[in-house]
Specification:
This protein has about 270 residues and is of the alpha+beta class. About 35% of the residues lie in helices and about 30% in strands.
Length: about 270
């Protein structure tokens, strides 16, 4: 295994921990995740390293997802075995949601964010970080992501299942949450998820302030590197992260069996 593949595999495993599914099982070393169809990450096979030795692995996986009323889906990355993507395509699995995994040095990202924070923009904005997603944070998350109220129980459970070293950041102005995000530290790595700015406050440099808070919290909790996952079509976000020193190191996407209703995207 070359160093790039080993790094991708390592981050894939860490990232899977940051978005833990409600139920899971294994087909040998592949992790099968299911969470009522909410988000692809929590409802797909983490297919890293070699193929399972059992020749019937695909049938077992499809049976698992069928029992959950979900389409079978695979997370396919640079850490997946060679030939998996082509095999799934030949079996009717449709390519879905191409993404980038971007990496930055925490210290360098901190320097870049602090240089870009506009003091006039940040004036009057308070920041805080908690180890739990309290009701105010969760209310704002659902509102900013425009998610229905019925998703509350899923996300409450998801945030509770995340690893212990997690920080839920809020940016508030005049008592209103205008931006939020989550940082999760495992070992030397920090992963950022749920990074969102209120649509009325975009384009004002609030993203730099939010990323600065997430980065500072992560460094304080031992991170020296940080990563995030972003949809390839989200060019504004990619451009922002590149300015902060992030580099797109790996591509990944999903392969979804096209015979059942698809997932809820968020």
């Amino acid at each position: 295994m070359n160093s790039d593949t080993a790094l991708c595999q390592h981050i894939d495993l860490i990232a899977a921990n940051t978005w833990p599914s409600e139920t899971s099982t294994f087909v040998e070393h592949w992790l099968l995740r299911a969470s009522r169809g909410v988000t692809k990450r929590a409802n797909s096979v983490l297919a890293i390293n070699g193929f399972p030795s059992n020749d019937n692995w695909l049938a077992h996986i499809e049976q698992f997802y069928q029992s959950k009323g979900l389409p079978a889906a695979f997370h396919v990355s640079s850490a997946s075995p060679e030939g998996l993507d082509e095999l799934l395509a030949s079996q009717g699995y449709v390519l879905d949601t191409p993404c980038l995994l971007m990496i930055a040095s925490s210290q360098y990202a901190a320097e870049q964010t602090s240089q870009r924070i506009n003091q006039r923009t940040s004036n009057g904005i308070s920041t805080s970080c908690s180890g739990t997603a309290d009701t105010e944070w969760l209310d704002a998350f659902l509102a900013l992501e425009q998610l229905p109220e019925e998703r509350r129980t899923f996300y409450r459970g998801l945030f509770d299942r995340m690893p212990d070293s997690k920080g839920f950041v809020k940016l508030k102005q005049d008592g209103q949450i205008i931006a939020l995000g989550t940082a999760i530290v495992e070992g030397n790595w920090a992963g950022f998820v749920n990074v969102v700015v209120h649509e009325n406050f975009r384009g004002r440099g609030i993203s730099y302030l939010l990323m600065d808070e997430l980065t500072k919290w992560s460094i304080a909790h031992g991170a020296v590197q940080q990563y995030l996952q972003v949809i390839t079509s989200n060019k504004p976000a990619i451009h922002l992260y590149e300015k902060l020193g992030y580099q797109a190191r790996f591509n990944y996407h999903y392969r979804v069996k096209n015979d059942l209703p698809s997932f809820a995207s968020s």
